[in-house]
Amino acid sequence: MKRFIRTRCDDYLQDPNISSIGIGYKTVKGKRSSELALQFSVDKKVRPEALEDVTSTPIPPTIEFEGVSIPTDVVQRTFKPAYLLVQPEAIQKDERKRRLDTMVPGISIANVRTTAGTLGTFVTDRRSGDRVILSNWHILNTPHGVIGDPIVQPGPFDDNRTDLNGIGHLRRSHLGPAGDCAICSVESREVDPTILGLKTGVGRLGTAQLDDRVVKSGRTTAITFGVVTRVEVITKMDYGQGVTASIGGFEIGVDSKKPPAEGEISKGGDSGSCWMAVDAGNKITDIMLGLHFAGEAEESDAEFALACNATAVFEKLEIAPLSATGPEVLVRTAEAANEFRRGFNPGFLSFAVPLAGFTDTLTNDLAKLSNSREIKYTHFSVCLSMSRKFPRLVAWNIDGSVIKKVSRTGIRFVKDERGGLEAFQIGDELYANNPIDRGHLARRADLCWGVIAEARQANRDSFFFSNITPQHERFNQGQRGGLWGRLEDAIFEDVDVEDLRVSLMGGPILRKNDPTFQGIPIPTEFWKLVAYTDSADDVDKVRAFILTQRNLVDDLVEPEALELGEFQVFQVSLRRVEQETGVRFTTAFKKLDTMPAGPEAVGRPNARLITTQADLFA
């Protein structure tokens, strides 16, 4: 049934009388049976002979799909986005419709272009780490909205003093199968993530199942309970002003154990509310199942509401829950991120690749996090120099068999602020309007592997300045011929790597006489080692390289201009890396070194000049 909906729903939703398709229990003689069916909701139920009057085709009792006969059911439902249903009310404004100095989920909010909806919850923007507000696309974006639009609390329908009520700006939105959803920034006022009237907030996400009991707290009908009546629902929605979309989610009906006081589980203005799970003991949990986006119209045969799937919304908008513990907001996403921040894995290959150590002097210069000089991220670890404010060493693993293509759009370079680490990182002040790039040591594309959530966390982690060193654009950028990032490409192109698994270490060679630029010493050389098992001869190998951008940044002349030139790459021994950097490798690891005997490069003892990519692993 799920596959049918996902592959065939668009064919049926083109019928003007069909409003949605989902999975629910078949209704027989007005009562729910125990038989699951594909439920087609229609704007109007008619007899077969009258179908032409509503420009529709009949839905058969069963549908053949993938060799299976699937029963169908037809119910009468008409849904409309809740903000279109808002009507004037001749009553005194309650707490949900007033301006609140401390905002909470369940109160009025909207784009300045529309009327009023509900502030769903506060979440963390996983791209930036900022605390933001979650609600609907049609509440925060609207058909004619643009990113950056001002958002007000309460919505203009409840208080038209929009110049005084601004609380943030539209940041991101989506309208489609993943949901009707958007987020906006929080730029003023205090926040409390506890949902109004529910004594809990969104701490976890769940997937709605048939007969799940749920509750929401909305701007108009306040607290109402419901029961999940259909899942895997795709609904054709008309948002007016020429905007229509197919929205994924689930349907909610009246909970007979807790029916709404006025018979309505939702009304106009409730859009954006969070539907929270209610457990078997009638306790309201911190598990969010859905984001309310529509209620039934007057023509429907019963009281129903629609919600987007919470998991799809959070995935699409790249957000995560906050911890709801009262006005003191704690970011639970830090715990979620740390689930994947296991750092460099020395046992990643069939042989040990121990994390390098340092001389005593350099060890004492390394920043600590949680009393450890190894700062762990997703798939990589960093040893950070407190004096130079650059990483001395980054070690990372690559599993080429499960690489994911993850977008970098919208991700900013930021300082890692955990445990005071921001004091030991140089940020954007160095990189503006000059040929110096923010050069990843552990390359972003190398780290994006594993399950999608893991790959995305690695993607974000790669943009911490603790993983960045200043690299001349011609040294760093592959399209300009830079070899720093192409070493990994060459491995997989030119070497038969066992299981496509590789471990790497690298970093800048920080010298006391490095040339300064804008008052900051710039490293002119970098080192990198690559460890892998060569399937061609079943031999464990380690290759080390020194890459110099000395001719690109040597002599930083006034007025702070960079001289251009060429860069060079040398294969060197691990012992040479130790001499140049102060790092220390184990004796067993150094025995795997593949530095060949032969002519040395002029001026470079124990070094072999690399002139082509083919030379890298020759």
Feature tags:
35% strand, Thrombin, subunit H, 618 residues, mainly beta, 12 helices, eight-stranded antiparallel beta sheet, Extracellular Endonuclease, Chain A, 3 domains
Describe this structure in words.
With 618 residues, the chain is mainly beta. The protein contains twelve helices and 36 strands. It has three domains: 2-76, no CATH class; 80-89 and 96-329, Thrombin, subunit H, CATH 2.40.10.10; 357-617, Extracellular Endonuclease, subunit A (Extracellular Endonuclease, Chain A, 3-Layer(aba) Sandwich), CATH 3.40.570. A hairpin with a 2-residue loop joins strand 3 and strand 4 (68-76). It is elongated and about 90 Å long.
pLDDT averaged over residues: 84
Shape: elongated
- In the residues, how many domains can be counted? 3
CATH level-four homologous superfamily name of the largest domain = Extracellular Endonuclease, subunit A
Rg over CA atoms? 30 Å
Distance between the termini: 55 Å
Query: Please, how many helices?
Result: 12
List the uncertain runs: 46-54, 84-92, 324-333, 476-481, 552-566
The CATH topology of the largest domain turns out to be Extracellular Endonuclease, Chain A
The tally of strands reads 36
Helix content: 10-25%
Biggest pleated sheet: 8 strands, antiparallel
**Which CATH-level-2 architecture of the largest domain?**
3-Layer(aba) Sandwich
At the first level of CATH, the class of the largest domain is Alpha Beta
Strand content: 25-35%
* Secondary structural class: mainly beta
User: What is the topology, as strand order, of the major beta sheet?
Assistant: 8-7-11-12-13-10-9-22
